[in-house]
Design goal:
Elements: H1 2-42, H2 47-59, H3 62-66, H4 69-87
Helix pairs in contact: 1-2
C-alpha cells in the first residue's frame, strides 16, 4: 500500500510538470499564431489588445481542456493495469 501511495505522489508530481510545460507551450504557440495573424491580415487597432482577446478566447477552448488528458490517460492506464494484474 505504501508503494502505491508513493507511485501516486511521484506520478502526480511528474504529470504536473508535464501539464505545466504543455500548457505553457500551447499558449505560446497560440500567442505566436495570433501575432502572425495580426501582422499579416488585420493591422488595425492595438496588437496587444487583439492578442489578449484571442488568449482569453483560448482559455475557454476545447484544446485547453484536452490538455487535462495528461492526468486522466496515465491514471486510467495504471488503474486498469493494477486491476488486471491483481483481480483478473
Amino acid at each position: 500500500m505504501f508503494a502505491l501511495g508513493r507511485l501516486l505522489v511521484i506520478g502526480f508530481l511528474v504529470l504536473s510538470v508535464v501539464y505545466i510545460c504543455l500548457s505553457l507551450y500551447s499558449r505560446a504557440v497560440r500567442r505566436d499564431k495570433l501575432e502572425k495573424e495580426w501582422d499579416e491580415e488585420i493591422q488595425q487597432g492595438d496588437r496587444e489588445t487583439f492578442v489578449e482577446a484571442g488568449l482569453r478566447e483560448y482559455d475557454g477552448s476545447l484544446r485547453r481542456k484536452l490538455i487535462l488528458g495528461v492526468y486522466i490517460v496515465p491514471l486510467t492506464v495504471i488503474s486498469v493495469i493494477i486491476y488486471l494484474t491483481n483481480f483478473h
